[in-house]
Amino acid sequence: MVLISPPEPRPHDGAIITGELSPGAATSELRTVRVLTPSSGVAPAEILRVAAKRPALSARAAVLDRIRAFFSARGFLEVETPARVLNPGLEPHLVAFPAGRDRDGLERRLITSPELHLKRLLCAGYERVFELARAFRDEEHGRLHLSEFTLLEWYRAYQNLEAIAADLAALLPELATAAGRDPRNAIPGADLTRPFTTITYAQAFRQYAHLEPWALTIDDRERAFIERVEPRLGCDGPVLLLEYPPDVAALARLVPPSDGAEWPLVAARMELYLGGVEIANAFDELTDANEQRARHLEDQLARTSAGQHVPPLDEGFLAALAWGMPPSAGVALGVDRLIMLLTGATDIGEVRAFPT
Amino acid sequence: MYSTQEFRKGLKVEIDGNPYIIIDNQFVKPGKGQAFSRVRFKNLVTGNVLDRTFKSGDQVAKADISEDTMQFLYESGGDYYFMNTTTYEQLSTPGEKIGDARFFLTENLECTVLMWNGRPIAVDPPNFVEMQIIECDPGIKGDTVSGATKPAKVSTGFQLNVPLFVDNGEWIRIDTRDGSYLDRVKK
């Protein structure tokens, strides 16, 4: 005899729609109808998983609402930039998904961040913009990585990293509250209401790895960073890591170091860490079109020699820079990671309905 | 060879001439940097834990490991003899190599034997085995509720605690994962 277990109750069993229109009826004649067909009896695993995520997804929605309210209150304009672009970002370690061809037959890719279009807006005179963008990075999967994730980026013309640090310090406690947590202890060991501490990259290396970072090859330095430095950052409260080595400047300006580092110039780059997790990356933006072109050419060479896809230079972006970008600071914040920490989740997939 | 993209929990690999199983694999990629995998392995022979960091794309050798179903035949002079139930080949291994599993091996018991380069490195008995008690105080009839226990020895010399009502010579079921008494079996 085969025993069939009774159908599992569904969250919406017994729900009814009131107000459905019957065909041909006047709009005032509303029907009440039962919605659901009989259950097949077996709940699909995906449906059970997503049903169990309701608290996380509610916190997520509240955080997204608060982000919009926060920036709107500060005079930022919310914008949406394209997801399919000619140049998805040239950084050597990013892998962009192909996204078909456009009307001119040119190959498009999904953005790895909305950065290059947001900066065009700065050039066009939009002084404060933000975007909640979906970003796509192939070959990134893990407890802290999804190949499809949400990036919050915001930019301030005529301001520097200090303004971004102030934004972060004001934003994070508000988002903790929105997620239903006390900002003083939402993240173990990291009181979000206290002033963020700062440390330079070189100081962090000396303090946690007992190494001079410029004395190492890039490979050894990155290995030491992930093994010995990164896990310690932000474990006693939010930390801003400053003055990155010049070879990982990406789109940041280069400036003289403040701390006796032996690099002639360091990147005006700042990362926010909470509990060993990288949450946001900010730049004092490079605005010099010639230097930007030179860095992009270098990145193209690096991608070529690594056998990676080499997108064309983003001439639209370079032309906008050449025309004139105001001195600006901008930041990209990993929304999923922050919600993960704020909700006490241990895997980034727990805070997206359908992680991919 | 496995590349880091294929790393996942449970994968069996060979490092520095030893067989390991991946017990944790973290993808790490600091902003603007290259990707790494921070991997925690367990040595399948010694149980020791090893942490290693790999650059994305690094490769590790596959371990020549198979899980074969084998029947336990007998023990002689500290060596344990098994027969592969598919090929009927026989092999033996010293008792200390198979750890606590040897306490649960009774004649003809089917086990999973982990083979590395043709050598047995671990024996997994079934989760539940039936064994006969060869030594314990007489059973106290009717006492099925008090929860009190007494020591008992089974045919392999393994000692465990059993309820007071269990009698010498009776057969019991044992959970091999923690060596605990489960229930009595009528034989």
List the helices and strands and how they pair.
The complex is a heterodimer of chains A (356) and B (187).
Chain A lengths: L15 E6 L8 E5 L10 H7 L2 H20 L3 E2 L5 E2 L12 E4 L5 E4 L4 H9 L4 E9 L11 E10 L3 H18 L18 E4 H9 L8 H12 L9 E6 L9 E2 L10 E9 L2 E8 L4 H17 L9 H10 L3 E7 H8 L14
Parallel strand pairs in A: 3-7, 9-10
Antiparallel strand pairs in A: 1-2, 4-6, 5-6, 7-8, 8-14, 10-12, 11-12, 12-13, 13-14
Helix pairs in contact in A: 2-4, 3-8, 5-6, 7-8
Chain B lengths: L1 E2 L8 E4 L2 E11 L7 E8 L5 E7 L3 E4 L2 E12 L2 E6 L5 E5 L15 E7 L2 E6 L3 E9 L12 E6 L4 E5 L7 E5 L4 E6 L2
Antiparallel strand pairs in B: 1-6, 2-3, 2-6, 3-4, 4-5, 7-8, 7-10, 8-9, 10-11, 12-13, 12-15, 13-14, 15-16
Task: Provide a descriptive summary of the structure in words.
The complex is a heterodimer of chains A (356) and B (187). Chain A is an alpha+beta fold and 356 residues long. Helices cover 31% and strands 22% of the residues of chain A. Chain A has 9 helices and 14 strands. In chain A, the strands form 3 sheets. In chain A, strands 3, 7, 8, 9, 10, 11, 12, 13 and 14 form a 9-stranded mixed β-sheet that branches. Chain A has a 3-stranded antiparallel β-sheet with strand order 4-6-5, with no helix packed on it. Chain A is globular. By secondary structure, chain B is mainly beta. Classes of the chains: A alpha+beta (356), B mainly beta (187).
Query: How does the overall form of chain B come out from the CA principal axes?
Result: elongated
Work out the strand percent of chain B: over 45%
Instruction: Supply the number of helical segments of chain B.
Output: 0
The counted number of beta strands of chain A is 14
What's the story with the biggest beta sheet of chain A?
9 strands, mixed
Helix content of chain A: 25-40%
Spans of chain B of 5+ residues with little confidence (pLDDT < 50)?
none
Return the string of H and E elements of chain B: EEEEEEEEEEEEEEEE
**What structural class do you assign from the helix and strand content of chain B?**
mainly beta
Biggest chain contact: A-B, 23 and 16 residues
For the termini of chain B, the CA-CA separation is 50 Å
